[in-house]
Amino acid sequence: MELRQSVEWGKYLESLGWQTEVIDGCALRVKKLGFLGCIIKIQRPDLLPLEKIEAFAKKSRALFVKIEPRDDPQAKSLITNHYSLDSWPLTPARTVFLDLTETGDGLLKSFSKDARRSIKKSENPTLNYRVVELAERQDDSIKQFYSIWKQTGARGNFWVPPFSEYAKELSAFSGRGFFILSHLENKHLVSGCLIFMCDGVAYYHHAASTLEGQTLHAPYGQLWRAILESKNRSCTKLDLEGIFDPRFKEMFKAWLNFSAFKLKWGGRVHEYPGALTKGFNPLLRLIFRLIN
Fold first, then answer.
1. Is-above-0.70 flag for pTM?
2. What does the DSSP assignment read for 6-55?
3. Which residue range is the domain that position 281 belongs to?
4. pLDDT tens-digit readout, 142-167
5. Are residues 253 and 278 in the same domain?
């Protein structure tokens, strides 16, 4: 099961006003819009019972259904049923997978020379790395991480959600993830990453660093520790959760720098089909035909 099909992801979305409807194991996320009806999104389901989904959409007066298929066969099925390719995927449609069944030495050998050198440089006695469990998180830790995440977003020109939304996400995944945090001389935080776990897969969900942390190569030390910690927790794969996608250049152009970082870790680049949308309101169907 993919992360965004999980019960935990459903709890997080419910805290933001979405509801979940499960049809034959496929989680539909439904946002009600009062007298207008609703909108429905479905992200990377194992199975796609399209006929039942569309029956539910019509019954619920859905304006449209947006689906991110798991693979090409699902995408072809959607296109056959008059879904149109969307220019705005909900989740990154291009990512990197690391095989955690490899030994630690095997993984190290697969990394680029620059990554291996940077990991060595990150073994600095002034840097203190530690694991913080989501179930036992300390308010200071999550606030410090959020603060440098905001700084990272401002430097990299990418959006960071409000603190209240971030806190709801952590609450939903309590017990199903951890932070790796790096402090300089046991004082201030200079880098960190947040890992979620679902069905044997670890997700490198959020990462942040200060300029000082980058100078000390702390992001390399933290990701290497996240890899080893995920292996220790019996995860077989690490999803680096998105890199620059040339199919959606404008949407992901701010991702070029950290995509270069993620590509140094010897993983396999994987592309999903993107998102496909179908309007169920007659006016929306006309609009979709005009713009696609």
1. yes
2. SHHHHHHHHTTT-EEEEETTEEEEEEE-GGG-EEEEEES-S---HHHHHH
3. 3-90+273-291
4. 899 999 999 999 998 888 999 999 99
5. no
